[in-house]
Amino acid sequence: MRSYLDFEKPVAELEAKVEELRAMAVAAGNATDITEDIGRLETKAAQALRDLYAELTPWQKTQVARHPQRPHCLDYINALVPEFIPFAGDRKFSEDEAIVGGFGRFRGESICVIGHEKGSSTESRLKHNFGMARPEGYRKAVRLMEMADRFDIPVLCLVDTAGAYPGIDAEERGQAEAIARSTEACLNLGVPNVAVILGEGGSGGAVAIATASRVLMLEHAIYSVISPEGAASILWRDTTKAQDAATNMKITASDLTGFGIIDGIITEPIGGAHRDPAAAIASTGEAVANALAAMKGLDRQTVRRQRREKFLAIGRSLE
User: Fold this and answer.
1) pLDDT in tens, 234-246
2) From CA 154, how far away is CA 296, in angstroms rounded?
3) Distance (Å, rounded) from C-alpha 70 to C-alpha 275?
4) Domain ranges (residues) in the chain
5) 234: closest CA among 223, 221, 224, 222?
6) Fold annotation for 63-312
7) What is the C-alpha to C-alpha distance for residues 256 and 250, in angstroms, rounded to an integer?
C-alpha cells in the first residue's frame, strides 16, 4: 500500500478516487463511461503530481528523502551488484549491521560496495539501527577500503543515514576517531571511489564514506552537516523551525551542485524514487557506470591528486 506524505494529500485524494472508480468498473462489468472517468482522473492525478514535484521546498525534499518506502542500500545492491559477497566485522570489536559492505560485480567488473542500510520493516530497522553506524561499522568500512585498494578494485559507497549513532557506548569506543579514520581511508584510496547520496546524507556519519572522487546525489536526497531539526534546536531552541532551517542550510542537490560539493544529480521518477524504485535504481546504476568510466585508466597518483584537489577547492570560489 502506498504511503503519502502530508503535502501529497491532493494527489492522494485523486488517486483514491481512481481506485474507487476502478472498483466500481469491476462491479459494473467495465462500464465505458466509468472507464473514461478513470482515464481523466488518472491524467489529472499525474499532472498534479508532476506540478507538485516540480516545485518542492527544501523541507518537502527532506520528507521525500526520508520516505519509508524509498529504496535502500540493499535494494540497490541486489539489483546492481550480482554475486555480492557481504563481509562482516571490523576485526577489532564486533559486526555493525548499520553498514553493509562486501565485494561483487558491477557490469562485469569487480567492485567493493559499502553502504548504510536503514531497513524497510520494523524488524529490519531495529536490526540495522536505522542506518546509524557505530565505530565498528566505520572500522569495517576502512577494512574493506584497504582491501579494495590492495587489489585495485574501485569502491562504491551508498549513503543513507541521519548520522552516526550518538549513544554513549559508541562514544566510549571512539566514534569520532572511527569517522576520521574512515574519511582518511577514502582520501588515501589509489583507486576511484564513487559515493551516491540515496536519501539522507547526515553529518560525519555520511562524510565518513562519502569523501569520494565523484559524489552523486539523487534528485530529492539531502546532504548536510546536521539535520534540520538539530539545527533548529541549536539555533532557535525550537525544533518546529526545522522548515526554516532546511531552507537556510542549502541541503538540496541543486544547492550543493552550485557550491561544488557534489558532482552530479541523478534524476528521480516523478513523485520520487519510492514511486518507481526500479527506475530510480536503473538511473543510479547508469550514473555510477559513467562516473567510473570517466576515471578508468587513471594511475593511482592522479586519482589521489584529483580527489584531494576536489575537496580542497570546496568553498574557495563562492560568490
Assistant:
1) 999 988 899 999 9
2) 10
3) 8
4) 6-55, 63-312
5) 224
6) 2-enoyl-CoA Hydratase; Chain A, domain 1 (3.90.226)
7) 7
